[in-house]
Amino acid sequence: MNKTKILAFIALAAIFSACGSDEGSLPELANNNSGSISPYDTLVVKFKSDLVDIDKLDETKVIFPRGTLVKGKATGKELRFIGTNKTPGGLDYFEEGISDSIEFKDLKNSDGYIKDRTVFYFSTLRIFDKEPNDSQASASEIDRDKAKNGITFAGVLDHKVGTTDIGQSIYDVNDYYTLKLKASDTVSINVTNREALNIEIKGPSGTTDTTFQALKGKSNAFKYSVGTGYLFENPTLTVNDLVPFYINITDNATSSPPNPYTIRINVMEHITK
């Protein structure tokens, strides 16, 4: 074969290779790790190409004992999953504080390619909303040392959760958390919620000091600086004594579906000499 024929063969091979690359590829994940999600979230797994027969996928194709595939349209690039647990108000959720994975077998995409196996990884936040915590006396405690490094957790206002023996409705519309603070501390609060929330900061005596409103479906950020007013209520305290403050999350939407939220607390400490 002379030099001209060799060059022509190479050029032709390159053309066929380029054409082949336009015909598609295996059904690859757009991202194989979601990071930490709220247990109350819908987990979204995205692929780079459309999958076929999404509505026919079952446990032989999708291996995920701790979650349920939400059936969708016949083709698409996304698969959605919810947890197998239910809150008293009927909200689906995953187990808290876990690292888990979803295994996919023999998925076929619209290009006609089949991939024998691929794995998607995720983890879930802890749920600090431990019922009953609808009053200061039963508030869920946030560890101050962990909060100094920033701590993120999940909760839900479950709204109607049942009825009493005499037929009265039982509601979950208040979540109380307690955090030990002192004068000159600054607390940053970041909240992501499904529906609007009110967030009250209460001092040791239970008096509301500050109220924030977290808007619907947004990431809301607030800052709260601890004053010295509470010291006048107890003259034995000093500015460096740690005392319990309270965070009350509420929406009073008794007739609405459950309202899940995630919240990040960060305490910035100021040492007073």
Can you describe this structure?
The protein has two helices and 20 strands. The protein has 273 residues and is mainly beta. The protein has a five-stranded mixed β-sheet, with no helix packed on it. It has a four-stranded mixed β-sheet with strand order 1-9-8-3, with no helix packed on it. The longest helix is centred in the N-terminal third of the chain and has 19 residues, at 3-21. It is elongated. The chain starts with a helix and ends in a 5-residue tail after the last strand. The relative contact order is 0.15. The model is unreliable at 9-21 (pLDDT under 50).
Please give a quick description of this structure:
With 273 residues, the protein is mainly β.
Class based on secondary structure composition and strand pairing:
mainly beta
| SSE order | HEEEEEEEEEEHEEEEEEEEEE
Overall, the morphology is elongated
Which stretches are low in confidence, meaning pLDDT under 50 for 5 or more residues running?
A: 9-21
The average pLDDT is 90
CATH third-tier fold name of the largest domain = Jelly Rolls
- The count of domains is 2
Number of helices: 2
Report the span from N to C terminus. Answer: 90 Å
CATH class of the largest domain: Mainly Beta
Share in β-strands: over 45%
Q: Please give the order of strands in the largest beta sheet.
A: 10-14-19-16-17
Number of DSSP strand runs:
20
